[in-house]
Amino acid sequence: MLVLLPPSEGKAAPATGKAVDLGTLSLPGLAAARRTVLDELVGLCASEDPDAVAKAADVLGLSPGLRGEVTRNAGLHGAPARPAGQIYTGVLYDALGLATLTPAAKRRAARSLLIFSGLWGAVGVKDAIPAYRCSMGVRLPATGALGTFWRDAMADVLPEAAGAAGGGLVLDLRSAAYAAAWKPKGALAGRTATVRVVQAETRKVVSHFNKATKGRMVRALLESGARPGGPDELVDVLGELGFRVEVRGPGRIDVLVSDVH
Q1: Residue 249: which domain range?
Q2: I want to staple 14 with a disulfide (CB 3.0 to 4.6 A). Which of 61, 82, 108, 216 is the partner?
């Protein structure tokens, strides 16, 4: 099973640690593309001139209150790095609770989870990275739209990763911007399930509950050791784990929640 996750906007910034080593990250086929984006992002944010900082903030879509993130990005080459599972924070990752998984579930997480990123393309939860700010929706001056850039870079790498994960289900929990960077094709698409979380009575997506429920769902799958081979088996497994599910089309599953408060 391979689980595709979105990153979080908020990130924990480690105070100590070695700098990122691109050669040690998962999916080594993305190394050259990672270097391209990293170098341009650092160069964009390197100047302390107020006009240059304002331009970088505009490119990155940062509000005035977040312009300190420009300075953080300028130091990424030497910034302390920690496992990605510790860097990404927020509702989904709080609910997933990687740090409190059983040892067996942590091993499954290391094998199964890929977190998509505008800067790194995709990383595993044990890959050491620094805190940064660069979403998939960013258009860098030279590299261009990151969603398009990563689509080409991932075309061969991600199918190989899906095979290396033991085949079976690809569980796609990414938001739209990150899903656009790579879409499973062919036989792999037939083994892919996308899940949304909706309010049971209205069938509307509620953002907070969507993220929290997805985190709890991934946690339950990892703790159970389940290895669904495709979307149909996932429906059965989620039901056994106590989730209310509906199939709304091939490979498309709704998880229903009643309380949205």
Answers
A1: 2-257
A2: 82
Between helix 207-224 and helix 231-240 the angle, nearest 10°, is 90
Q: What is the mean pLDDT of each run of 10 residues along the chain (261 residues)?
A: 94 94 96 98 96 96 92 97 96 96 97 97 98 97 96 91 76 94 91 92 82 96 95 96 94 85 45
Q: Sheet containing 170-172: which strands, arranged edge to edge? A: 121-124, 113-117, 2-5, 170-172, 192-199, 252-257, 244-249
Longest CA pairwise span in the chain (Å): 58
Among residues 209, 229, 222, 179, the alpha carbon closest in space to that of 244 is found at: 209
Q: How far apart are CA 64 and CA 116, in angstroms?
A: 26
Q: Return the pLDDT at 164.
A: 60
- The Cα 59–Cα 151 span in angstroms is 20
Q: Which two tokens stand for residue 17?
A: 């640690």
Q: Residues 175-179: contacts with CB within 8 Å, 24+ apart?
A: 175/6, 177/135, 177/136, 177/137, 177/147, 178/4, 178/6, 178/7, 178/116, 178/136
